[in-house]
Specification:
Number of domains: 3
Strand order of the largest sheet: 1-5-6-12-11-10-7-9-8
Radius of gyration: 26 Å
Number of helices: 15
Shape: elongated
CATH topology of the largest domain: BirA Bifunctional Protein, domain 2
Helix content: 40-55%
CATH class of the largest domain: Alpha Beta
């Protein structure tokens, strides 16, 4: 194994595919902060997802009848499976590398999605929230330097809506307008509902509260009213205070950020990478979901969508292989393998073939003939 270990040690991570490098680096990062790998089955009882269907990102679930007659589903969500097995009397810190199966709205088919993420379950205090946001920021930075982590807070938005005493349908309409980031729709909805000019302006201000923390947080304080909004604002201020200046340059506060209003109820996270059209990271706090599944504790987490990273361009590589050995088929296999192992024990990659490398780029090229190795 010495040769393999040397080869791994000498790997230039910048030359690997982004998703491969990311998984290697993030596994180590999460383990350094006390997270343990969690493995869940690809199959789950269909009833679990049927009962909490409103919390899933799509309406359709891929299901089948098992040989024992049970109705199972190909897992559309990892977090629900982890929540189901959570224990109330202990803090659980788990990370996972899993596949989920969801409806693709673009192609109207089911799609296999690769995810890597973490969940912090138990007593969620200020440190737990700050650590999770920090690890989300570090996860993006580990992939590439050009990234943005957007932070929002459901408590700030819902705290404002609670003050307006809206009917359920009116509340839903306002939330949709905020999620669409449409001031025109929001203004019209506020007028149709009959809100005062002052209340309508406070809603419109939410759409304007987006930007650097140092700029946005003081302006958010100006429309803050009530305990719920103040608690949300205080939490975001504590998170930003826990991050260093370099990290804060990549943080953007957006009070109109609404990931999944059925699932999340606290701080929200969405991560973007330069050059990719869609977010690669989603997450937030979901205490209410824990309560609905019968637990008496909170939770916060996020997931990185590995498949999105495949869209990133690969950096140029100088060589495809370290050593190329040209050898005829009738050469002594044992002697040739012994020579190959001498190279691999040094941590060098080797390819043996009868014909010259052609368009394969190699650092050094050799000819093996009758037990002798000659450099080309």
């Amino acid at each position: 194994m010495d040769g393999i270990e040397k080869y791994i040690m000498k790997l230039d991570f910048d030359m690997r595919r982004p998703e491969e490098r990311m998984m290697l680096v993030l596994r180590r990062l999460y383990e350094l902060y006390g997270y343990r790998k969690y493995k869940v089955s690809n199959f789950e009882e269909y009833s679990l997802y049927l009962q909490y269907k409103s919390f899933l990102s799509g309406d359709k679930i891929l299901s089948f009848t098992d040989l024992d007659g049970r109705l199972l589903a190909l897992r559309p969500d990892v977090t629900l499976s982890i929540i189901k097995n959570a224990r109330d009397n202990e803090t659980a810190k788990a990370y996972y590398i899993e596949k989920v199966y969801r409806e693709s709205k673009e192609s109207n088919t089911f799609k296999e999605i690769n995810q890597m993420g973490l969940e912090y379950m138990g007593r969620i205090d200020a440190y737990a929230v700050a650590e999770t946001v920090f690890l989300a920021q570090q996860s993006l930075q580990a992939i590439r330097d050009d990234y943005i982590l957007e932070l929002g807070h459901m408590g700030f938005v819902t705290g404002l809506l609670d003050k307006l005493e809206l009917l359920p349908a009116e509340r839903e309409e306002i939330m949709e307008c905020l999620a669409a980031k449409s001031p025109h729709r929001l203004r019209r909805a506020a007028e149709d509902i009959g809100l005062s000019a002052a209340d309508g302006q406070r809603l419109l201000t939410l759409l304007e509260l987006a930007g650097a923390p140092a700029d946005v947080l003081p302006r958010a304080a100006a429309i803050c009213s009530g305990r719920k909004m103040q608690t949300a604002l205080d939490e975001l201020e504590k998170i930003c205070a826990a991050l260093d200046d370099d990290a804060l340059r990549h943080i953007r506060i957006d009070f109109s950020l609404l990931n999944d209003t059925e699932f999340y109820d606290g701080v929200l996270m969405t991560g973007y990478l330069q050059g990719l059209p869609r977010p690669v990271l989603f997450g937030g706090r979901y205490d209410s979901m824990m309560y609905k599944l019968g637990h008496r504790c909170g939770a916060i987490g996020f997931a990185v969508y590995i498949d999105e990273l495949e869209r990133l361009p690969l950096p140029p590589r100088e060589f495809d292989v370290d050593i190329w050995i040209e050898a005829a088929p009738d050469e002594d296999a044992a002697a040739l393998l012994a020579q190959v192992r001498r190279f691999t024990d040094e941590g060098l990659s080797v390819r043996v073939a009868e014909r010259p490398p052609g368009d394969t780029r190699c650092r050094r090229c050799y000819i093996w003939q009758k037990g002798e190795l000659t450099e080309c």
